[in-house]
Amino acid sequence: MSKKNNKLYRICDALGCELEGIYPAPKSREKLNEYCFFCLEHIREYNKSWNYFEGLNEVQFEREIRKATTWDRPSWKFGTKRINDDYKFIFDMFQKDRQEKKKPIDKELLDSWKILDLKPESTIKDVKKKYKTLAKKWHPDTTLNLNKDNKKNNETFVLITKAYEKIIKSLTEKTI
Known about the structure:
Elements lengths: L1 E3 L2 E3 L13 E4 L8 E4 L1 H10 L8 H12 L22 H4 L11 H9 L8 H15 L1 H4 L6 H23 L4
Antiparallel strand pairs: 1-2, 3-4
Helix pairs in contact: 4-7, 5-7
């Protein structure tokens, strides 16, 4: 602080500068609430060289963007936390009615899994991939001139398609 016309004022924090420092700038990324004060000329230089993200790796950079997006309030990725995980032990009596019920696998569905040569634990992605492979192999258009037993190939293709449809339907319908 210095006196000028009986008033106190800050001197610019730049080395050797005696001008009034009226423009605040954060000292560092870690000390955003602590300021250096500069004159107009030096604050312009400081702002040109200031890079809040300097020295951050990609993960830290993404974390900073996420924090800034939510105004530094805690958040989590959408869909990663179920709403009642924290209170499950308190409200367990309400959860008993809403528990997912495992539906029994009927014989036709088991046969469908066997036709596609997959296990019931397979994902939709696995089922689609397997169906695509089998459809290319058994589709009547691709086997038309290769085999004399074209009717059998056609029946096999229909069987594969029906099995695929049944499995996809069972995987996509709600169980609650």
